[in-house]
Amino acid sequence: MKTFALLLVTILATPLAARIITVAPGAGAQEALQTALIEAQPGDTVRLAAGRFALVDGVSLDVEGVIVRGAGPGKTILDFTGQKGEGEGLLITSNNVVIRDLAVENAKGNGIKSKGSDGISFVNLRVEWTGGPKATNGAYGVYPVSSKHVLIDKVYVKGASDAGIYVGQSKQIIVRNSTAEGNVAGIEIENSYDADVHHNVATGNTGGLLVSDLPDLPQQGGHTIRLFQNRIIANNHPNFAAPGNIVASVPSGTGVMVMANRDVHVFDNDIKDNAGNGVMIVAYQSKFTDKNYNPLARAIAVHGNRYAGNGGKPAFPGGAEIAGAMGGALPPVMWDGVIGYAPPTGGERAADGGVAIGDGPAFTLNLGMQGVPATSARPAPLPAATRLPPLPPRIVLPAAQEARAAR
Amino acid sequence: MKRLVVAALLALGAAPAPKVDAARLLATEAAPKLSDYGLFADTQGRVPATGVTLYTLNTPLFSDYAEKFRYVWLPPGKPAAYTATGVLEFPVGAVIVKTFAYPADFRAPDKDVRLIETRLLVRRATGWVPLSYVWNAAGTDAVLQRAGVRLPVQFIDAKGTSRSLDYAVPNTNQCKQCHQQGTAATPIGPTAANMNDGAQLQRLAAAGQLTGLPATPPRLARWDDTAEPVAARARAYLEVNCGHCHSRAGFASNSGLYLQADEAMPAHQGINKRPVAAGRGSGGLNFSILPGQPDASILLHRMQSSEPGVMMPQFGRTVPHDEGVALVRAYIESLPAS
Fold first, then answer.
1. Are B272 and B289 in contact (CB under 8 A)?
2. B119 bridge partner residues
3. Residue A391: CB partners within 8 Å, gap ≥ 6?
């Protein structure tokens, strides 16, 4: 009886007529693809045949529960070289969607974006600007924003003029088994809660992995983020982001940067050959008027990482002098030593939770208050922490989402 | 007698008064042709059917210089209800109609007018549904177009300059991208404030098509009325052209840039606000609006651009709106440096 009930549930949960809609490249592919994405019903798969889809406008999906599947990231290519309109190559605004096994090339804006999607999976994708790193490339490769239950798995992004993989204002996030190469920021988690970033490779970017938080946004106060078992190697590319954006302030040679978040754990990573800071922990430095914003990095733990060859040629102002004073190379972990800030409402507030470095060696700039310029640094070694804050729990996405993404 | 009536009608050049097909509007399946709804008395889509009311807005959305004709039809006996903010509350069955057209020469705007598309927003029981119909080359009917299309358009502008552009009919998802607030689609234009020209709302109320109209409803400035303050005009322009996405419930909610004319927080208006996810769209500038310095303001930079990934709005135009740019430039110039 129980078996029967289960069976019934399975049948009811499966759309009665889940279809496979196949779209092939060639003349009329723009309209055929967009039509398929509009007419798909929940449960359907839109299958993109192998070949190059020459698209002149961004395409979008707003139907729940659809799988968009190509023949592989080397075979099905959405080519936006001739794009005339829209801010994205591919945009998803519905829940429980899987985008997999395809490539997006040369999008004029962002590669693939999801906005407000609950249960969005990006699997086995390539997003690339094929002319290599350039300031004229699009901003973000894979870009979920204001989304929940985000899975990014086996994604390769190259050439983004901002962040290769950028998760903004989202919750319950896993970024794994992915590679970001030749972007300004490799992988960036911004204004987000509960993220696991693991088993990724970030190499040849300006900065490898970034965790940041900005004021004046609907979701802020980024927290509970774990970066582990990643390979963060030789992120020494000159910064080619448009000035003004937060990643434009990332010094070339940065392995990991954590800014204005709480409960961020960086552990068990290989962090090698980054010419600046292996790990940099900093406050948000600009003036702000948002009274709810906390600009400090707090309750940050760095432990059990393997460092080699970092800090030999720091690009940030004053970096070479500090390196010289510390024996020729920067110690792998740097904290700006900002422990307090003056909120716009007046008074002073201190960090609620310190910075604990379990590996290192580490040093602090001892800046003290938010907004004090780095030229006022009083660098000093930072002793290893004897106690680390507790590790946040593992992120577990809904089993149904993992199952859909695995198919 | 009958023959006489027919002859009289023929003499007047008029067919029997058509009726809007209310049932067709509410059917789940969209009609393949615009004419199926009976919204127009002529096949050319220029003469509204009985009960289809032309209306205007103080400040319209810029759409590549297209002329726009706006109509509303309400089911008999079902008026719209006044709301002080947001769009009027339209009854189920209502349809809002907008035709996009180009005269061959804007110096003679009534001659040789080519209709491009007619967009409908139909209020069904489940919510507002966007539909777009593209006119055929002969201009005799328009057909449903869900996936969007680009159409070459040529015209001579108001200054006498010949222009051509690659007009983009939006796809259904793009319709929703602009019209979605929170989880539901909604019209954008017909708010009491934007329809308040001093007479139009009162006319609708007198005709029994609008209830609850107060004596002095709010009013959105006309963007092109130089008698009004620059800030009011510019903020009206930004609300209409940007505020549908740049709102707390809109597609660009994550930007923190909220361009409603009544937004109180300077940072959310863009004043001294740093970019968030603009990427290269920032053009290397540090603030959305830097008071007194339009050329250092991202907002103006993106209005002036026609490059995807940089330009704002992201779609709905392919060329910059020179007059709108000039207005926002004057507004930013007028803001005192902080």
1. yes
2. B98, B132
3. A226, A265, A267, A301
8-state DSSP, A246: G
Grouping H, G, I as helix, E, B as strand and the rest as coil, residue A368 is: strand
Between CA A7 and CA A339 the distance in angstroms is 58
Could you tell me the two tokens for A357? 């470095």
Contacts of A297 (CB under 8 A, 6+ apart): A258, A259, A260, A261, A262, A264, A281, A282, A283, A335, A336, A338, A351, A355
ipTM greater than 0.85 = yes
Q: Is A115 on the interface with B (CB under 8 A)?
A: yes
Residues whose CB is less than 8 angstroms from the CB of residue B203 and which lie 6 or more positions away in sequence, other chains included: none
Structure letter (DSSP) for residue A390: P
In the stretch 19-58 of chain A, residues with CB closer than 8 A to chain B read 30-31, 34-35, 37-39, 56-58
Joined together, the tokens standing for residue B24 give 């067709």
Q: Which residues 334-353 in chain A show a CB within 8 A of chain B?
A: none
Distance between CA atoms of residues B122 and B23, nearest Å: 12
In the numeric block, which tokens belong to residue B259? 């361009």
Instruction: Identify the burial level of B28 via C-beta atoms within 10 angstroms of its C-beta, where 0-12 means exposed, 13-18 middle and 19 or more buried.
Output: exposed
H helix intervals, A188-298: none
A242/B267 CB distance under 8 A: no
pLDDT in tens, chain B (338 residues): 344 444 444 444 445 556 899 999 999 999 999 999 999 999 999 999 999 999 999 999 999 999 999 999 999 999 999 999 999 999 999 999 999 999 999 999 999 999 999 999 999 999 999 999 999 999 999 999 999 999 999 999 999 999 999 999 999 999 999 999 988 999 999 999 999 999 999 999 999 999 999 999 999 999 999 999 999 999 999 999 999 999 999 999 999 999 999 999 999 999 999 999 888 899 999 999 999 999 999 999 999 999 999 999 999 999 999 999 999 999 999 999 87
Are B60 and B77 a contacting pair, CB within 8 Å? no
One DSSP character per residue, B159-179 reads TS-EEEEEEEEPPHHHHHHHH
* Whole-prediction pTM: 0.92
Are A139 and B166 an interchain contact pair (Cβ–Cβ within 8 Å)?
no
Beta strand B52-55 with B67-73: parallel, antiparallel or unpaired?
A: antiparallel
- Whether B274 and chain A come into contact, CB under 8 Å, resolves to yes
